[in-house]
Design brief:
Helix content: 25-40%
CATH class of the largest domain: Alpha Beta
Number of strands: 19
Strand order of the largest sheet: 6-7-8-3-9-10
Radius of gyration: 22 Å
CATH superfamily of the largest domain: P-loop containing nucleotide triphosphate hydrolases
Number of domains: 2
Structural class: alpha/beta
Length: about 450
């Protein structure tokens, strides 16, 4: 086979959408690794969903032009037929999980192929080991961190041993070791002559030998060589003038029945940004939720000065429930009786043109910005953010940095749990790392 997928003047429009999401796409995916880049909302996820038939067969809408996947005409080939040879991991991998434990989740795909029990077991072991998580085989999915769930989803895709592997922002919640595991797994498939297509805002995390790059721009292929710098330089900022202690934890142990993290002493001052880093599953989310008051500590004390608390969960859909983006922000204002309007925060996140859009119709990166706008409107005093750069392109990261700089300048105390080590270095006055249930400070406040 000369190519794994081919498009000729292909276009697609979602139901009820005026403008096409893809338009005039002509390309072919060859064996090897293809990295697909482009800004948030450029159409990357939609193009990937054509490779397993979700577009147009599941989503509906209108498609034109021609497309073939694994030598099958996309117009007449169902998603069920393609699923046997095309494996895909979505931007929000938790949405595609159906089984209770990690091992059963990885086994689900091979079981549906009708393989023998011995072959299924071998594939489960190989998939989990490829992503460095064999110890999670019997863990319940509900107890896993976002990064661990992402690794499980990737292991499940690898266990299918697909001819074509499609990954949508696969490193968005992975720590550096997880990203390296994924890069090695992709290179292994490529060495076998298979095709791997990855949409990624940080392509250097999965780049490998002989990779090919494509960039989407407003639903069309950008001319070669148009891609900008892979990562923006850290912003130049002056030392923040931190005020009094906004919250303080002493001797804190956190977890669900059993401690995940113990003996934590940590504080945050008004006008300060503190970042929590650590490997997937190290306890960042549990500690963040406890400090925000959403989970009771197992032991120790937390003292918080009065002030409005704002919390962003890992899954942005958890705070988006209204029929339009404007209503999402307006709802926060109504609930908290704030003296504010939605427009300034929507403008800061460059969302004013999408104000009337249902959040479910936004890309993952746009939904993340929408969720941030909804929780950060009105200058909260205590801010707790969990993986706020998930699905964010370089421009969105800079928007977030500017908003957090403004909030810190207005006296907000900000705690960020993140697997994004670059972002932590860019924004954090102090960076602390969770490792083996303990917390160590890796960077103090700059002088």
């Amino acid at each position: 086979m000369s190519n794994f997928a081919r498009f000729e003047q292909f276009g697609y429009r979602y139901p009820d959408s005026v403008a096409p999401t893809l338009d005039g796409i002509t390309l072919q995916f060859e064996p090897g690794l293809t990295l697909l880049t482009g800004s948030t909302g450029s159409g990357k996820s939609t193009l990937l969903r054509t490779l397993n038939g979700l577009v147009p067969h599941f989503h509906g809408g209108q498609a034109w032009g021609r497309a073939w996947v694994l030598n099958r005409d996309l117009r007449t080939t169902s998603t069920r037929q393609l699923a046997r040879e095309v494996a895909m991991v979505f931007q929000e991998p938790e949405s595609q999980m159906v089984m209770a434990t990690a091992g059963r989740e990885v086994a689900f795909g091979p079981e549906n192929l009708g393989l023998s029990r011995a072959e299924i077991g071998a594939r489960v072991v190989a998939g989990l080991e490829a992503m460095g998580i064999p110890e999670l085989a019997h863990r319940r999915i509900a107890t896993l961190s976002g990064g661990q769930r992402q690794r499980v989803a990737l292991a499940a895709a690898l266990a299918m041993r697909p001819r074509l592997l499609v990954l949508d922002e696969p490193t968005s919640q992975l720590d550096d070791s997880g990203a390296e595991r994924l890069r090695e797994a992709c290179q292994g498939l490529v060495s076998q002559g298979l095709a791997v297509v990855v949409a990624e805002h940080r392509p250097w995390r999965v780049d490998g030998r002989g990779s090919h790059r494509l960039e989407l721009e407003h639903g069309s292929l950008a001319p070669p060589g148009r891609a900008g710098p892979e990562s923006a330089p850290p912003p130049t900022r002056t030392k923040r003038n931190a005020g009094r202690i906004a919250w303080q934890a002493e001797g804190l142990s956190v977890g669900h029945q059993e401690p995940v993290v113990s003996n934590i002493d940590l504080s945050c001052r008004e006008g300060e940004v503190v970042c929590l880093t650590g490997t997937n599953g190290s306890g960042k989310t549990t500690l963040l939720r406890t400090l925000a008051g959403l989970l009771p500590p197992l032991s120790g004390t937390i003292q918080r000065y009065p002030g409005r608390r704002s919390y962003l969960p890992q899954e942005p859909g958890g705070v988006l429930h209204q029929a339009s983006l404007w209503e999402e922000v307006r709802q926060t204002i109504r609930w908290l009786d704030l003296r504010a309007t939605p427009w300034p925060i929507l403008e800061e996140f460059q969302l004013t043109a999408l104000a009337a859009t249902d959040p479910r119709d936004l890309s993952t990166g746009q939904r993340q910005r929408a969720a941030l706008a909804a929780v950060l409107v009105g200058a909260p005093k205590l801010v707790f953010l969990d993986e706020p750069t998930r699905g964010a392109d370089a421009e969105s990261r800079q928007m977030l940095i500017r908003v957090l700089e403004r909030l810190a300048g207005e006296g907000s105390a900000i705690l960020v749990a993140t697997s994004d080590s670059l972002f932590a270095r860019q924004i954090g006055d102090r960076v602390s790392e969770l490792e083996s249930g303990q917390l160590r400070e890796v960077r103090e406040r700059a002088a």
